[in-house]
Recover the amino acids of this structure.
């Protein structure tokens, strides 16, 4: 069904011909849904609870480095446990995320009882539009466990799932959930695997990183048409395929989070088991250290080791940052060698920054104006060096030329 057809369908369903609640209650709940453990929890809502085994259990203790991978965990009480997480995913009547798009299926996954291999999944299924408000009330209750605000884990949920729920709550005159502690793993996945995978979709990460193969899965893109067909025919056979797809999404989401917990505990082995980008992880650790003022030596040392590993693999930015750090630590020969390698990569702005750093060191530490001028000229010749760097280097070049002229004049006088 095209967009025009979907909009017309929405208009019809929400118009004057919509089933009244007392009429719907006489409508038979498809036996197929009841056979699959769904139970009625509202006039238009069914719920079921099931257990699903995930590909890899999480590490039971969260490493501090996990907050570098999942920024929303930074600053959260160190007593946070795996059981405190809610893995969240919805299926909707459209993929655009507009105000007319509604959720008809929501799943929540939790670990419990020290069992980190099996995930308890609760699903809420909306059976018709008139029950949306009740459906949303049950969802928002599931998002709030009665304690402090839980940590919600999703995949692209910040841009899509949470916005759908917020919009529909507002449409129905309800206060939306806050989602104030929301870990969206799509951003972390893109950071670690965008240079390795052609796509960082959840299914691509599952298949290529976790070696998870979904067999018999229903394409989530079919969810809107399948639900609209169910409203028309009351045939739930295809709808159950979408319910299973939702369960697989939540299980895969929990498995990806589990991988991140293991990476956080052994970050230097990231490329061996999970084929992730060591440079990206080093930059995440660096950003975490700077943003949160972490001064402990072990975090700085970890960052350095990751930079060294990435630099050895030819990562230009890692080379530059490592060379800069070695200069600060007065390991001058190593620093200049690494910076020279970075400059030779011809990677635009980073190579230009490496040349600039070599020019600064040549001028102020080595007092070699000829060499400093060479690096300044090379910086100016770099494409994509950036206007700020160009302006700074032009001033340096002019100063170096004047200093050379003064040196030449002094030499002439001395003779």
């Amino acid at each position: 069904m095209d967009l025009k057809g979907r909009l017309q369908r929405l208009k019809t369903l929400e118009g004057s011909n919509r089933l009244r609640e007392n009429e719907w209650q006489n409508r038979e709940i498809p036996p197929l849904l009841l056979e699959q453990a769904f139970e009625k929890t509202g006039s238009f809502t069914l719920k079921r609870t099931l257990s699903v085994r995930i590909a890899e259990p999480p590490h039971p203790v969260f490493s501090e480095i996990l907050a570098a991978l999942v920024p929303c965990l930074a600053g959260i009480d160190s007593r946070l446990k795996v059981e405190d997480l809610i893995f969240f995913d919805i299926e909707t009547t459209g993929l655009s995320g507009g105000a007319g798009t509604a959720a008809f299926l929501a799943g929540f996954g939790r670990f419990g009882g020290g069992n980190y291999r099996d995930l308890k999944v609760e699903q809420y299924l909306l059976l018709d539009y008139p029950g949306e408000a009740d459906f949303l009330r049950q969802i928002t209750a599931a998002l709030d466990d009665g304690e402090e605000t839980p940590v919600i884990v999703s995949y692209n949920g910040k841009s899509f799932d949470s916005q759908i729920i917020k919009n529909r709550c507002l449409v129905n005159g309800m206060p939306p959930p806050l989602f104030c502690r929301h870990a969206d793993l799509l951003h972390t996945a893109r950071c670690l695997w965008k240079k390795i995978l052609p796509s960082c979709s959840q299914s691509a990460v599952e298949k290529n990183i976790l070696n998870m193969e979904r067999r018999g899965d229903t394409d989530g893109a079919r969810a809107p048409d399948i639900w609209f067909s169910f409203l028309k025919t009351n045939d739930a056979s295809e709808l159950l395929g979408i319910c299973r797809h939702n369960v697989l999404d939540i299980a895969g989401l929990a498995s990806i989070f589990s991988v991140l917990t293991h990476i956080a505990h052994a970050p230097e082995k990231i490329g061996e088991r999970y084929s992730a980008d060591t440079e990206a992880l080093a930059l995440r650790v660096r950003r975490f250290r700077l943003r949160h003022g972490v001064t402990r030596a072990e975090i700085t040392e970890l960052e350095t080791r990751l930079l060294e590993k990435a630099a050895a693999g030819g990562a230009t930015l890692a080379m530059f940052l490592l060379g800069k750090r070695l200069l600060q630590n007065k390991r001058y020969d190593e620093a200049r060698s690494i910076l020279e390698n970075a400059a030779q990569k011809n990677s635009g702005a980073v190579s230009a920054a490496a040349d600039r750093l070599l020019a600064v060191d040549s001028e102020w530490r080595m007092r070699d104006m000829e060499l400093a001028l060479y690096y300044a000229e090379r910086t100016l010749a770099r494409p994509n060096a950036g206007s700020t760097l160009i302006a700074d280097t032009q001033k340096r070049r002019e100063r170096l030329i004047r200093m050379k002229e003064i040196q030449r004049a002094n030499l002439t006088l001395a003779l």
Summary: Residues 293 and 329 are 20 Å apart (CA to CA). The domain at 3-266 is CATH 3.30.420.10 (Nucleotidyltransferase; domain 5). The longest helix spans residues 237-265.
